[in-house]
Amino acid sequence: MVDVGLIETLRGRDGRLPWLGRHLARMRASVTALGLANPPVDIADLARIAAGPGERVVRLELRDGHVEVSTRAVTEQRSVALMVSDEAYRPYPHKSTCREQFGRSLANARRLGVDDALLVTTDGYVAEGTAWSLFWWDNGTLFTPAEELGILPGIGRSRIMELTGVTEARVQVSALAGKSMFLVNAVRGIVEISGLQGEPVPSDPRTAELSSAFWPD
Fold it and tell me: Could you give the maximum distance between any two Cα atoms of the chain, in Å?
């Protein structure tokens, strides 16, 4: 990959970074896999200092062995309406700065008055959101797209898989009709999906139960 950087976006909660170790482990794995330069500084210390007290989002970007740290306010959303992006999904196994497919998908969704977008592989399989992992309930079982599709191994995704049994699957968009769905990431936690392609999505009380257990004490 040419001129690629790695990014990690963390949630600061009351001055703590609950998933800091997991974020840094994923970044280290990507540094090794992509043959990138390691930073000469302790990223963990930089992240903790940047987080400060209260609720913040901390963004780390590693490029050419240098780390840039920025913060922003937390944006809360109770539910989102999605559309299916017409952008052909390309595998995104590392959280890199090569995010053009997600940026275009989100911009197009917003232009059409929709909150966010769901990307689908060229074979028609549901992959992931623009900054989220997808889950859905089906006959008492919780499903998520298979990691073998090349999706990002999300920190929020792994947390859900710790909390309950999850089945990885390859499905097309039509298989999601009538299913209760939610998105998750390590910044905003669980966010329910209220609509997909203009059709309402039912809620499920089990999603609220997972949401209440998502953040560690």
Answer: 50
Q: Would you kindly state where each structural domain of the chain is located, as residue ranges?
A: 6-72, 79-214
Which pTM value belongs to this model?
0.95
d(CA 216, CA 107): 33
CB 192 within 8 A of CB 182: yes
Question: Which tokens go with 99?
Answer: 């995010």
One pLDDT digit (tens) per residue for the chain, 217 residues: 457 999 999 999 988 999 999 999 999 999 999 999 988 778 999 999 999 888 999 999 999 989 999 999 998 888 999 999 999 999 999 999 999 999 999 999 999 999 999 999 999 999 999 999 999 999 999 999 999 999 999 999 999 999 999 999 999 999 999 999 999 999 999 999 999 999 999 999 999 999 999 999 7
Phi and psi at residue 43, to the nearest 5°: -65, -35
The pLDDT tens digits of the residues spanning 53-64 come to: 889 999 999 999
Domain 79-214 homologous superfamily, CATH: D-amino Acid Aminotransferase, subunit A, domain 2 (3.20.10.10)
CATH architecture of 6-72: 2-Layer Sandwich (3.30)
Length of the chain: 217
CA atoms within 13 A on the CB side of 32: 6
